[in-house]
């Protein structure tokens, strides 16, 4: 059995293709596997942010199904960076360049794109459905049905927030460089992802600096994970928030470059039939192939694994070294 270690903008995952197993892992086994394999101490290759589970899809138009298990064992409805890597995996498995992938709430369109740089494969993935209402995100006790560019001192004094489900839940604030690189992200992220009266299911928290027209730098504290190098749905939700709250800086229908601590993606925000949706384009990098016996996978025994590097990480690092650096953390 082969696992893959992959990343999109250094948002790290293991891909587990359940269709290759004689006996598929149960949901309970997936939870304990995710908790162990993603940990920097008990996991493989310094862990990851989550596990992407590939299954056959029963939907007629989808080439496969992706489930997203966060590092803490919770299941997310979507993962934008992860979907790019699953899109590449299915594209190579079935030799198709454009298709749909079933996710928890929707079948999403994906397509192979030109390499971002030499040896840096790239995919575009649809981010939708987009929702704004309290019940769809969800949040409570904030005195709003929708949160779009509102000061909410209960969440953090002096910052304006926007909250969007894509369909996993996001909270976004546009801030200056000092704030984006400060420990405020951790303070808000930890408060809203532990027992709290506002985001009672947790929320992905994104702080964004507007660098220029159609150019952002975004840091994310992820629900079920913590600090991450990048969050694809977060950067997509933040690009939509930019178009809504700062239309002079973010244009619908035009690629927005979103820099993050792990690299850069491009997000195009669309508005059709009274619905928003986004295209997220970025790398889909496979760093390592991991051979593990199926029985060892069930028993969570990583002691006999064989790891083979793909060599793609060097290409990715060269690509990142040529990007402008807005990080300065
Ligand atoms: N990293 C992801 C989002 C993963 C899910 C998130 N932790 C949640 O629980 O909503 C991305 O790239 O979108």
From TrEMBL:
Enzyme Commission numbers on file? 5.1.1.7
Enzyme class, top EC level, equals isomerase
Q: Which PROSITE patterns does the entry mention?
A: DAP_EPIMERASE (PS01326)
Q: Where is the site labelled Could be important to modulate the pK values of the two catalytic cysteine residues?
A: 170, 222
Q: How does it assemble?
A: Homodimer.
Tell me the first and last residues of the signal peptide. Answer: none
- Tell me the protein's name: Diaminopimelate epimerase
Question: Phosphoprotein as a keyword?
Answer: no
UniProt similarity note: Belongs to the diaminopimelate epimerase family.
- HAMAP family per UniProt: DAP_epimerase
Q: In which pathway does it act?
A: Amino-acid biosynthesis; L-lysine biosynthesis via DAP pathway; DL-2,6-diaminopimelate from LL-2,6-diaminopimelate: step 1/1
Annotated residues for binding of substrate: 11, 70, 80-81, 168, 204, 222-223, 232-233
**Keywords, sorted A to Z:** Amino-acid biosynthesis, Cytoplasm, Isomerase, Lysine biosynthesis
Q: Which SUPFAM superfamilies does the annotation name?
A: Diaminopimelate epimerase-like
> The organism sits in which domain of life?
Bacteria
């Amino acid at each position: 059995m082969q696992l893959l270690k992959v990343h999109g903008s250094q948002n790290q995952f293991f891909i587990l293709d359940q269709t290759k197993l004689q006996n598929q892992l149960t949901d309970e086994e997936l939870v304990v596997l995710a908790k162990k394999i993603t940990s920097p101490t008990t996991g493989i290759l310094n862990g990851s942010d989550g596990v992407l589970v590939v299954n056959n899809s029963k939907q007629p138009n989808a080439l496969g199904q992706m489930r997203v298990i966060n590092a803490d064992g919770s299941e997310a409805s979507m993962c934008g960076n992860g979907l790019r890597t699953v899109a590449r995996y299915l594209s190579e498995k079935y030799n198709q360049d454009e298709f749909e992938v079933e996710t928890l709430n929707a079948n999403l369109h994906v397509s192979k794109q030109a390499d971002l740089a030499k040896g840096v494969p790239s995919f575009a993935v649809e981010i939708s459905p987009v929702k704004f209402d309290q019940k769809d995100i969800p949040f409570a006790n904030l005195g709003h049905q929708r949160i779009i560019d509102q000061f909410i001192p209960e969440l953090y004094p002096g910052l304006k927030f926007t909250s969007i489900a894509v369909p996993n839940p996001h909270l976004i604030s546009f801030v200056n460089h000092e704030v984006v690189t400060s420990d405020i992200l951790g303070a808000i992220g930890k408060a809203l992802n532990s027992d709290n009266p506002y985001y009672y299911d947790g929320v992905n928290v994104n702080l964004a600096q507007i660098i220029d027209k159609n150019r952002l730098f975004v840091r994310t504290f992820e629900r079920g994970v913590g600090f991450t190098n990048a969050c694809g749905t977060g950067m997509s939700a933040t690009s939509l928030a930019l178009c809504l709250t700062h239309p002079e800086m973010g244009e619908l229908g035009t690629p927005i470059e979103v820099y993050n601590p792990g690299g850069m993606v491009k997000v195009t925000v669309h508005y059709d039939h009274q619905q928003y949706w986004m295209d997220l384009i970025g790398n889909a990098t496979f760093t390592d192939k991991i051979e593990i016996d199926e029985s060892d996978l069930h028993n969570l025994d990583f002691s006999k694994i064989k790891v083979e590097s793909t060599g793609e990480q060097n290409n990715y690092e060269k690509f990142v070294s040529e990007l402008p650096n807005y990080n300065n953390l």
